[in-house]
Amino acid sequence: MSTEAVADIGLIGLAVMGQNLILNMNDHGFVVCAFNRTVSKVDHFLENEAKGTNIVGAHSVEELCRKLKRPRKVMLLVKAGSAVDAFIDSIVPHLEKGDIIIDGGNSHFPDTLRRTKELEAKGLLFVGCGVSGGEEGARYGPSLMPGGSPAAWPSLKPIFQAIAAKADGQPCCDWVGETGAGHYVKMVHNGIEYGDMQMICEAYQLLRDGLGYSHDEIGDIFDTWNKGELNSFLIEITRDIMKFNDTDGQPLVAKILDTAGQKGTGKWTAISSLDMGVPVTLIGEAVYSRCLSALKDERVRASKVLDGPVGQKFQGDKKQFVYYLGQALYAAKIISYAQGFMLLREAAKEYQWNLNYGGIALMWKGGCIIRSAFLGDIKNAYVKDPKIESLLFDPFFKEALSTAQTGWRFVASQAVQLGIPAPAITTALSFYDGYRSSHLPANLLQAQRDYFGAHTYERLDNRGTYVHTNWTGRGGNVSSSTYEV
Ligand SMILES: *[C@@H]1O[C@H](CO)[C@@H](O)[C@H](O)[C@H]1NC(C)=O
Ligand SMILES: *[C@@H]1O[C@H](CO)[C@@H](O)[C@H](O)[C@H]1NC(C)=O
Ligand SMILES: *[C@@H]1O[C@H](CO)[C@@H](O)[C@H](O)[C@H]1NC(C)=O
Ligand SMILES: *[C@@H]1O[C@H](CO)[C@@H](O)[C@H](O)[C@H]1NC(C)=O
């Protein structure tokens, strides 16, 4: 081995996430070799942020690979998409069998699936690693979700688990599963983040418009919630946002245009849930709510012509409402996570991943945006019963929903009465009531399909046999049987 091989890992991409991960690895005693396509960035980094550390630099991909100990580990933190493929192509000629490429960007899981297969075919190992926690997390402890070639994990584990956030004394990083599992789990994490944020926004609107509370008062309510079962990073920052005044002493949040942007990971989760036939309704509503918010001009015009309650205030006991709203948020959150884990279970079947659900809950418990006390309860549920059908069957969550549902139903019906949209809170309740129904009206749906399309149906008293009924008593079939619904 060349004496030049000094570094434990190489990292490509010196934007803020990349720089912070390098500094984090350095803090934990690993020697990192840094590279950026614009090589002046490497020198600048070494002379500034990395000054006085053990970090080394490279001015070419070839030099980077030469400076790495075997098996070589090269981590990419570059823009998702074609840049990842281009870098992989440029690194591969400088690698040998058993070397590892890690993609730490926000890649879409089908790309990770493909790249894992392509690189494994060349005798290399590939890992798609979800990284959450933003800049701060990257620097002091992110949540890391690595998946791909399992043989890569033993060499990565000491580095990744050292730099990851810790929850209950354990690293928020563990092996997720094969091929695209790491990026899939990161995608679902982001989808759940969309859902959590949407529910919080609904609570905010109910408190602001339905109860007439000031932003300062709403901040106090979130502060109280943050001390109980809703304790989480997102509730905490919402409290701080409510309390943040602009230079004129008015709450800054009230001055922000109400159209939400999105980068696509929530949408990917919703699309995957449709592909897989899993009712991940809350995340779906959260994505659509952002879409609806983006129709600002159209909404302004509609607000002038469409009838409905406007500016109505809740007339009852406001303290009681706030208590109930806390229950509604908690219940909707349980449903959202139960749906998210249902999706993971189906994806594991579809893609043959061995997912460790308790481990995933632990990876999300610290470091990342959805970190919360609640994820500890999810971890416990999976530790008790790793094969549990749904979180809703876990005694803890079953009981929690039983307790919370008085408030949940109250808030949902009040929102409807007051004309305040609460799509996440209400869709969660509809899902819950549907999930606990042994009989849904889909019998009628099957009858309709058979009536107009001769799609056939099963009888309750003769399952497994498909029959068609001559519903009209007229000659011939009513419509073409090629019409699919
Ligand atoms: C190089 O560094 C810049 C920031 O200084 C970053 O925006 C860019 O993504 C990096 N690119 C690559 C390919 O290394
Ligand atoms: C923000 O302004 C409100 C009055 O509009 C005031 O009650 C509150 O204390 C201010 N908050 C902070 C953090 O200064
Ligand atoms: C449906 O029933 C009517 C009346 O009995 C009959 O004339 C017709 O042939 C039937 N159609 C089919 C497709 O069996
Ligand atoms: C009506 O539809 C059934 C079911 O698809 C089919 O078996 C039958 O041959 C059709 N009858 C006629 C008259 O087209």
UniProtKB/TrEMBL annotation:
Q: Which residues form a coiled coil?
A: none
| Alphabetically ordered keywords of this record | Gluconate utilization, NADP, Oxidoreductase, Pentose shunt
Query: Where does this protein hold NADP(+)?
Result: 13-18, 36-38, 78-80, 106
Highest taxon of the lineage: Eukaryota
Q: What is its EC number?
A: 1.1.1.44
Oxidoreductase as a keyword of this entry, yes or no, is yes
Q: Which residues form the 6-phosphogluconate dehydrogenase C-terminal domain?
A: 182-472
Q: One Pfam family this chain carries? A: 6PGD
**Has UniProt tagged this entry with the keyword Nucleotide-binding?**
no
Gene3D superfamilies the UniProt entry points to: 6-Phosphogluconate Dehydrogenase, domain 3, N-(1-d-carboxylethyl)-l-norvaline Dehydrogenase, domain 2, NAD(P)-binding Rossmann-like Domain
**Name listed for the protein in its UniProt record:** 6-phosphogluconate dehydrogenase, decarboxylating
The coding gene here is GND1
